[in-house]
Amino acid sequence: MIIKNLLYLLLFSHWALCQNQEAKVKKSDLAQVELQWEDISGAFMYEVEIINSKNKLLKKFISKTSLFKFKTTSGLIKVRGRVVDIYGKKGNWSTYIDVTVPPGEIATPDKLQASEIKIKPNPKTSKGEVKLEWPIATQAIGYKLIVKDQAQKIVSESTLKNNSTTVFLNAGHYTFSVIPFGNDSIEGKEYVSNQKITVGNSQLQNEVFDVKNENKVITISWTPKQDIKIIGQLQFAYHLSDTWLPVNDAQELVESPWLPNQNLKPGRYRAAIWSKKENWVDSETFYYEFVVKPTEDDLHSN
Amino acid sequence: MAILKIRISLLLFFFSRFGLGKADDRLLYTQIDNTKFCSSALEFKNSFNFLIEHKELNITEPQAIKTALKIAENCTGAFERFEKVYLILQKSGVELNKTVSIALEFSSYDNERAKNFYVLFQKLFLENYLDLDFSTSFQLSKELSKDYKGDPVKLRDDFVGIVDFCRNQSELAINKKLCLELASNLVKSTELYPKGLLQDFKTFLDYVQSHKRLGFDLKQNLNLAIRVLSKGPAAFLNFKQAFEFAINPDSKLNISELQAYQLALTLSDLSINKNYTDPEQTNHSILNSKKSDEKHP
Fold first, then answer.
1. Dist. CA A247–CA A234, nearest whole Å
2. Backbone phi, psi, residue A269, to 5°
3. Chain A residues inside the 8 Å CB shell of B128
4. CA-CA-CA-CA torsion sign (B44, B142, B113, B91)
5. Which residue from A59, B50, B81, B265 lies 20 to 30 Å from A87 (Cα-Cα)?
């Protein structure tokens, strides 16, 4: 039987780097398939028939040689052929040969090679919103996106229709790769992006501190929140100097309010206060500046 | 004799440095009263001791000697000026190096100018007086002391007197901001008054406040005082006489109280003689011109 003697060789030559995003596939975007049949003596031509996985006829053509060249969409196709002799008499069809046509490769554009994505996280969610994009693979009907952390552990895996998406990542360093897939879920070559993704530690939102200065007594109060520590430090600066010196070590303020100005020598002071939470960047520091003045007696005492 | 005194002083200085006990050196360091000459040794000794005893300065002996010499260069009274300014600023929380350099600068001015600085600074900075921020207090004190061209004593007495008067609960008891504005504006005219303007201010204010025909509020009266007193010691008298004349029913002027007030104000504005030249200054210029003629006949 012809089919038994059939040897075939599939060669795929894909499209040039094509960025066309039209819904209809251009002829030039189709995958080029070359199929080599064993030469059969007495064969003048070959009739070739191609159907898709749903048995829909895709193409039927006459090839003058045993190397069948045609263009087709990605996916699983079935190819059969028969001999046509010099008198035009056709032989029996061979059985269908299953051929897998993957989508094209994703080409790495030069400009993305060395780039790095640095993202600040959202202080409310502590996750960084990362927009990822990669070049289109022709004949791909979708993409499988894989995001890995520094330890190569997969942190996000998703199937997408488009060549861009947004992922939300915790603080850390990441890389990503994309596998295009065509019809019948036939996967193409994995594209590993050289772009590094860095999501910074998320910063705590600034607390609201209420300051009251009544009768020279300063009180700074706040609303306590679970898991959030309030840290305070009193700082001193001489008049005519811009250098702030710590009066004491920064310490957790267990109770609200804080009364920073007790028994202080004259000079400039500022109460520095901020919030802290494990695995979070400290909130911005809130400063309240005040001056302690000497009394007339202070100035005239020895 | 003077050489002998200096030798003895030096010996004593060295003995005290080498731990032979503090000698009673009051007789050795007698103050030189003649302003033509300086008690430089006394100034040096007091300054050096002060700098060494003030541990917060963390000053080395060579540094103390260098600074004490600089103070001594400023002649008799320099240490006292240095000390007063230093202590006021240090106790107010000023950076120590800056305190030393400012005190050193003030040690080079005369006593009254230095006194203006540390007295007025207190009035401006302390909470029970004007309670201004440090920078404003410091700048104003400098302007009213080292930068002041007139008589510092008159200025100080006026400024302090006005601040005390306007902050005193039994007197004006006006707010600090208004008090500062009043004092700053009034002292601009201090130089026109041979004995300062404090008493004239009080008398004028008493007059306008108590006059039944002048119905202004306190703030308006204070502004009026600033304007009238800025025209010199005769302005109050002119204002008063003009107003009394204008409202007197026997006078032939038939004007309203407001017009009488405006007339009084106009006449008080004319209290300074525009064509007046100071005879002392004139004599001085004549002398100078004579000297110049002698040099260049």
1. 5
2. -130, 155
3. 295-296
4. negative
5. A59
Contact B248, B239 (CB under 8 A): no
Cα–Cα distance measured from residue A25 to residue A226, given in angstroms and rounded to the nearest whole number: 57
List CB contacts (< 8 A) between A292 and chain B: 93
Interface ipTM: 0.77
The DSSP symbol for B98 reads H
Q: Which of A104, A114, A110 is nearest to A25 (CA)?
A: A104
Residue with tokens 């070590």: A249
CB pair distance less than 8 Å for B92 and A293: yes
Write the Ramachandran bin of A174: left for phi over 0, alpha for psi from -120 to 50, otherwise beta.
Answer: beta
SS3 A58: strand
Q: Distance between alpha carbon A25 and the CA centroid of its chain, in Å? A: 27
CA B93 to chain centre: 23
Report the C-alpha gap between B130 and A185 in whole angstroms. Answer: 84
The structure's pTM equals: 0.65
- Per-residue pLDDT of B152-167, as tens digits, reads 999 999 999 999 999 8
Which of A4, A2, A63, A3 is closest to A34 using CA atoms? A63
Q: Quickly list H helices, chain A.
A: 110-113, 296-300
Q: Which of A280, A274, A124, A275 is nearest to A202 (CA)?
A: A280
Radius of gyration of chain A, Cα coordinates, nearest whole angstrom: 36
Q: Is A298 near chain B, with CB under 8 Å? A: yes
**Percent helix, strand and coil across chain B, each to the nearest 5:** 65, 0, 30
Split chain A (302 residues) into runs of 10 and give each run's mean pLDDT.
37 32 49 82 89 91 89 89 90 90 79 71 82 89 94 94 92 92 91 89 86 90 92 96 94 93 90 90 93 93 78
Residues making up chain B, counted from first to last: 297
Sign of CA dihedral B84, B90, B93, B97: positive
Contact A234, A276 (CB under 8 A): no
- The answer to whether B81 and B111 have CB atoms below 8 angstroms apart is yes
Q: Is B28 helix (H, G, I), strand (E, B) or coil?
A: coil
Quick one: tokens of B200? 């004239």
Q: Which residues of B touch A238 (CB under 8 A)?
A: 93-96, 98
Among B93, B95, B125, beta carbon nearest to A265: B93
Whether A295 sits inside 8 A of B98 (CB atoms) is no
